[in-house]
Write a structure and sequence with these properties.
The complex is a heterodimer. By secondary structure, chain A is an all-alpha fold. Helices cover 70% and strands 2% of the residues of chain A. Chain A has a two-stranded antiparallel sheet. In chain A, helix 1 crosses helix 13, helix 3 packs parallel to helix 6 and helix 4 crosses helix 7. The longest helix of chain A is centred in the first third of the chain and has 32 residues. Chain A is globular and about 75 Å long. Chain B is mainly α. Chain B has 13 helices and 2 strands; from the N terminus they run αββαααααααααααα. A two-stranded antiparallel ribbon of chain B has the order 1-2. In chain B, helix 1 crosses helix 13 and helix 10 packs antiparallel against helix 13. Chain B is globular. Classes of the chains: A mainly alpha, B mainly alpha. At the A-B interface, helix 1, helix 3, helix 4, helix 5 and helix 6 of A face helix 1, helix 3, helix 4, helix 5 and helix 7 of B.
Chain lengths: 283, 293
């Protein structure tokens, strides 16, 4: 605080609180919608205050699901799929980026820069851009409708490799010298010194990548036709498309809420890590 | 780039980069190459015969009104999203920077939309603006405005812009706030002693000093609006009504997977790749160097 200006301070608080209210409003009415019964959600105007059916709807969404043109899929099941996908993508990206950053920073070998640029190129080719040929490659490999097809194409990551490269470059050379004098080989050095030293960066990156994986939509939509691989984020679209029948907003919004909560919890509970990961990976 | 002290073993580094390179080649370079190759081919709908047509697919693309319309629509969409989310985030961060009390609480309450998937953000806005039931549509109706984004293209565009902006504010907010908090307090104190009020200090000191962040965010936001908003379009409008929200990433998908126009979709992929490459080069070359105080 530079000087005491109560009015300006008051306005600042007011503007921020107003911003928070506006930003949170969609989620509030989602919560409200999820706590009413189906009948109430067909009467205009819709409620602004929660009703008493929250846990009933929660139970039904989680264990029964919503009828989308014949088959209904329990949301609990979709959550499991989302969780597996997000974890595999996040951990896979971290693992392969750590290894390749280690190789590029700590080894002299032919084509080192060539490999580096090859990884760099992935930065420029988001999956949305080359969607059809990538789909074709995955189909040719017979990976449609499988967890491998769902996760592998999303696992290569230039950003994570760059971040670990940056981290490794700041680690003093003396550590490697000391390790070598003590007779440690490269992998020993990697596991006993590099990994523990980049622990916070790994955690920070994990938050970002978990959210990235959880929120994938277009890719799973294309390569899974098997209902048993539906993720919760895709499930919403199927529910919104339920077509002829009147949309069952209370259940759709309950599912939306369920789909939003895990990544939000990750962000808020690991807030420090998240901010660190975000501001350091993207720059 | 390379450590002064390093290992010299023959095969280990290759084994270490192998997984990353394997995935990059199989799922990135190979499909990208295919897209470039495809874009020069004309294939009939059954895949029985293909013909090498050089740049015909691209010429056709530029001659196609639907594509050029989609191009200008995408430009409008991303500029609006970037402008709105940046200015709202700037105001919020400017206010939050002044506050000592509750600062962390406010930050917590503002950052979570980042974690919401674009499709879900779309679902929230579809629900609020549903023409028959939505609360906001109802409120607008009271004021005599008949909202129907399912029929009115302008309203559909407004809705996807709102949903995309909503999601991006928290990201911009975090970066602006971090940039503002790294400005030395002594500068602001000196200006205050010289009689500059909060607004003046903001425009003459804070805003110029965060220009690098602003430019960085501008690029990131445009990339976001170009490529990460597929889910929002898909949930809210499916590109409609009458193509009013059919932005480039959605068109690549719908032409390729629904329209089955392989050559055309590949040509669109190539154009999009070129756009990403240009944006990335701008980001690395100019922004990090030139806008520096």
């Amino acid at each position: 605080m530079i000087e005491n200006r109560p009015i300006v301070t008051f306005i600042s608080h007011a503007v921020i609180i107003l911003g928070i209210i506006v930003i949170a409003f969609p989620v509030w009415i989602t919560f409200v919608a999820a706590s009413h019964d189906a009948l109430r959600m067909t009467q205009s105007p819709l409620p602004l205050w929660p009703g008493g059916h929250f846990f009933e709807n929660l139970k039904e969404a989680l264990f029964v699901g919503l009828d989308v043109g014949g088959a209904s899929q329990p949301v609990a099941f979709m959550l499991l799929n989302s969780f597996i996908m997000a974890m595999v993508i996040a951990l896979g990206k971290i693992a392969i980026s750590l290894l390749s950053a280690f190789a590029i920073v700590y080894f002299r070998f032919p084509f080192r820069m060539g490999f580096f640029w090859m990884i760099f190129i992935t930065l420029m080719l988001p999956v949305e851009v080359r969607i059809l040929p990538t789909f074709k490659v995955v189909a040719d490999l017979g990976l449609l409708d499988s967890y491998a097809g769902l996760t592998l194409p999303l696992i290569a990551s230039a950003t994570a490799t760059f971040m670990f490269r940056q981290v490794f470059l700041t680690i003093p050379d003396e550590l490697l010298e000391a390790a070598r004098i003590d007779g440690a080989g490269p992998m020993r050095f990697f596991f006993d010194i590099l990994l523990p030293m980049s622990r916070t960066n790994i955690a920070a990156l994990f938050v970002i990548l978990f959210i990235f994986g959880w929120n994938q939509y277009l890719w799973p939509l294309l390569i899974t036709t098997d209902q048993s691989l539906t993720t919760v984020v895709m499930g919403i679209k199927q529910m919104l498309e339920a077509g002829e029948q009147l949309l069952q907003w209370n259940k759709i919004m309950m599912t939306t809420l369920i789909a939003m909560v895990p990544p939000i919890i990750v962000v808020i509970s690991m807030q420090k890590m998240f901010v660190k990961g975000l501001t350091e990976t993207d720059k | 780039m390379l450590k002064r002290v390093h290992f010299n073993t023959s095969w280990l580094p290759f084994a270490l980069v192998a997984p990353q390179i394997f995935i990059t080649v199989v799922f990135f370079l190979w499909p990208a190459g295919q897209a470039i190759f495809q874009s020069f081919l004309l294939e009939d709908a059954f895949g029985l015969s293909t013909e090498f047509v050089w740049f015909d697919n691209f010429k056709e693309l530029w001659a196609d009104d639907a594509y050029t319309d989609s191009f200008s629509r995408t430009a409008f969409f991303s500029l609006m999203v970037a402008f709105l989310s940046l200015s709202i985030a700037l105001v919020l961060a400017g206010m939050a920077d002044r506050i000592v009390k509750f600062a962390t609480t406010y930050r917590t309450l503002l950052i979570w939309p980042y974690a919401v998937a674009p499709v879900l953000a779309g679902a929230l806005f579809v629900f609020m603006f549903d023409p028959t039931l939505g609360l906001v549509a109802y409120a607008l109706d009271i004021f005599g405005y008949d909202w129907n984004h399912k029929l009115n293209g302008g309203e559909a565009m407004a809705l996807v812009i709102m949903a995309a902006t909503w999601k991006q504010i928290s990201y911009n907010f975090l970066f602006f706030l971090a940039a503002m908090q790294s400005i030395p307090k002594s500068l602001l104190e000196a200006a205050a002693i010289d009689g500059a009020g909060p607004a003046r200090r903001f425009w003459t000191i804070i805003f110029p000093l965060i220009t690098p962040t602003t430019f960085f965010l501008l690029v990131v936001n445009i990339v976001y609006a170009f490529f990460d908003t597929f889910g929002i379009i898909s949930a809210v409008t499916d590109g409609g009504p009458a193509g009013a929200t059919n932005i480039l990433v959605y068109k690549v998908y719908s032409d390729g997977f629904i329209g089955l126009d392989l050559g055309g979709s590949a040509a669109q992929s190539v154009v999009l790749m070129a756009i990403v490459i240009v944006i990335t080069i701008i980001q690395f070359r100019y922004i990090e160097k030139k806008v520096d105080y």
